[in-house]
UniProtKB/TrEMBL annotation:
<dbReference type="InterPro" id="IPR019734">
    <property type="entry name" value="TPR_rpt"/>
</dbReference>
<keyword id="KW-0238">DNA-binding</keyword>
<dbReference type="GO" id="GO:0003677">
    <property type="term" value="F:DNA binding"/>
</dbReference>
<keyword id="KW-0802">TPR repeat</keyword>
<keyword id="KW-0677">Repeat</keyword>
<dbReference type="Pfam" id="PF13432">
    <property type="entry name" value="TPR_16"/>
</dbReference>
<feature type="repeat" description="TPR">
    <location>
        <begin position="21"/>
        <end position="54"/>
    </location>
</feature>
<dbReference type="InterPro" id="IPR011990">
    <property type="entry name" value="TPR-like_helical_dom_sf"/>
</dbReference>
<protein>
    <submittedName>
        <fullName>DNA-binding protein</fullName>
    </submittedName>
</protein>
<dbReference type="InterPro" id="IPR051012">
    <property type="entry name" value="CellSynth/LPSAsmb/PSIAsmb"/>
</dbReference>
<feature type="repeat" description="TPR">
    <location>
        <begin position="189"/>
        <end position="222"/>
    </location>
</feature>
<dbReference type="Pfam" id="PF14559">
    <property type="entry name" value="TPR_19"/>
</dbReference>
């Protein structure tokens, strides 16, 4: 009796554990992050049972149903939210538009997207809604209708132009346009996010951080801004701030493909390749990637987690989509060598950056001097150049500076100016300044030549470019590298300081004078007669050039 009574008493002491809806939401998110859709569905359904009027829980459940292709069931829940529970959640209309588009019910998809644009006072999905409508009209085979119809139309047009500039690698051009947009409408979130990225790509880290802070003030949970913030914190080695943010980002399961793609690439950039891989897998289950770069990034995540066969499959598909770039070819060879155990161990251990280009160490030979026009017109090469200038090794950065000096357009000048102001590497700073001085000198000499050509005697019409060419021909890029760079910089500075350069018959006389001054400034014993004889010019002409160059501060560098 006593023993039985004790057992009954012990059983009576066990209390049932009552879980709240939030518990099942958290578990559902974890299962969804692992692509365990059955358990995620059970958790979200339980959360809805406990809180049937909570619109967030209903949207979570609708999102998983859409992930598994159950679009009709997803739509039932979304209509319940927007029609009965929370009509103010206009973003639900955008979710419905996506579902109908996936069901190939394009007229209903158009209706939902237009309602979203008309009823929403947010800009969170407006850009994506425009893109979706363009896709819908393409599938319907009709001309795009006027669906802007708001005061924001001109801003969207400008933003599309800025986004195109970013895609073409013209980051400073994009910055100018985006700054105008943000000044006019500071809460235009897509422009703020793209401006932060453009600042980051051009090395303006403080400006990028400030723009992200501004974005998060307007919209604290904006995923693009949070991802950008994580990358900047990692770049600045602010790990105590990065780790909690990274933990929060790992819990996010994006509904929209664009956000899933953003989060996947961010995880990859931050070295969280396992999370990146699973995000890419889930993303590709819903929609096949339309760009080779997405497959390339997914392949990197697979390669970095030792899923070599999967990486090869994705790179093969990327090659089919972009057969001429040669990017997939390079990494396919790397992956196949690793699979066969023939790869270079040091090369195989080196992490692959989440960037759509071939390794740039060294730069391809044709990018150095021979194909300037091709470099100007190739957006991928220009983007790669800027990336390498900011994050490549020093020898690669030197080559990029040289290439930008050759290109010489406004974007190249802006890039060099920004780099010379922000880099802490004194040697690279000097090289960027030399390139800028040469560009400015060439521009000034071209203008001066146009203005004064008619007034100059024919025998004195010597091109300043011929002087630069003479310097390069006289001084080897390898053996005489310091002298060559010093002479080019001094010549550029001279052209800046004088409106009418001294004209001499032989441009090599300037090279001789510059060598003489270089040797003297370095404490070498040298005579003008010896240098003149070496360069096959007269001592008198050499003396004139030396006197003319004496206006320069030769001890400046």
């Amino acid at each position: 009796m006593n023993s039985r009574s004790k057992k009954e008493t012990k059983k009576a002491a066990v209390l049932p554990y009552m879980c709240e809806a939030g518990f099942f939401v958290d578990r559902g998110m974890r299962f969804l992050h692992r692509s365990d859709y059955d358990r995620a569905l059970r958790c979200f359904r339980r959360a809805v049972e406990l809180e049937p009027s909570n619109p967030e829980n209903l949207c979570h459940l609708a999102g998983v149903l859409a992930e598994t292709g159950q679009f009709e069931s997803s739509n039932e829940l979304l209509f319940q939210v927007v029609n009965e529970i929370a009509p103010e959640k206009s973003e639900v209309l955008f979710y419905l538009a996506n579902n109908f588009a996936n069901m190939e019910q394009y007229e209903k998809a158009e209706e939902m997207a237009l309602r979203y644009l008309q009823e929403s006072d947010q800009v969170e999905y407006q850009e994506e809604a425009h893109d979706l409508l363009e896709y819908i009209y393409f599938e319907m085979g009709v001309s795009p209708r006027r669906y802007f119809g708001t005061p924001l139309e001109s801003l969207y047009i400008k933003h599309d132009a800025a986004r195109k500039s970013l895609e073409e690698g013209k980051f400073f051009e994009a910055i100018r346009t985006l700054e105008e947009i943000v000044e006019e409408k500071p809460d235009f979130i897509p422009a703020c996010n793209n401006l932060a990225l453009a600042y980051y790509y051009t090395g303006s880290i403080d400006k990028a951080m400030s723009m992200i802070d501004q974005t998060l003030e307007y919209e604290p949970g904006n995923l693009h801004a949070l991802c950008n913030l994580a990358i900047l914190l990692a770049h600045c080695n602010r790990m105590t701030e990065l780790f909690p943010l990274l933990d929060d980002l790992k819990k996010v399961v994006p509904f929209h493909p664009e956000y899933a793609y953003k989060l996947a690439t961010t995880m990859g950039v931050l070295g969280q390749h396992e999370e990146a891989y699973h995000l890419f897998v889930r993303l590709f289950r819903r929609s096949f990637p339309q760009e080779a770069s997405a497959l390339h990034f997914a392949a990197i995540s697979a390669y970095s987690t030792n899923r070599i066969q999967q990486a090869i499959r994705w790179w093969q598909k990327a090659k089919q989509m972009d057969p001429t770039a040669g990017i997939a070819d390079y990494y396919l060879q790397l992956a196949q060598e690793r699979l066969l155990g023939k790869h270079d161990e040091e090369k195989g251990r080196k992490p692959i950056p989440y960037y759509y280009h071939q390794p740039m160490e060294p730069l391809p030979e044709e990018m150095k001097w021979n194909s300037v026009e091709e470099v100007k017109d190739d957006s991928m090469i220009r983007s790669s150049l800027l990336w390498a200038l900011q994050y490549g090794k020093e020898e690669v950065q030197e080559m990029v500076i040289q290439t930008l000096g050759m290109i010489g357009d406004e974007e190249a000048r802006s890039t060099l100016e920004s780099f010379s102001e922000t880099t802490n590497n004194a040697k690279l700073k000097q090289k960027a300044r030399i390139a800028l001085k040469q560009l400015k000198a060439k521009h000034a000499s071209d203008n001066a030549a146009n203005e004064t050509k008619a007034d100059l005697p024919a025998q004195a019409d010597i091109s300043n470019d011929e002087v630069s060419a003479s310097i390069k021909a006289s001084f080897s890029a390898d053996v005489d590298k310091p002298l060559r760079e010093w002479a080019l910089m001094r010549w550029a500075e001279y052209l800046e300081k004088t409106a009418h350069p001294l004209h001499v018959r032989k441009p090599v006389a300037w090279a001789a004078a510059l060598e003489y001054l270089y040797q003297k400034s370095n404490g070498q014993k040298v005579t003008q007669a010896a240098v003149a004889q070496k360069f096959d010019t007269s001592t008198a002409t050499l003396a004139k050039c030396v006197k003319e160059l004496s206006m320069l501060d030769l001890n400046l560098f």
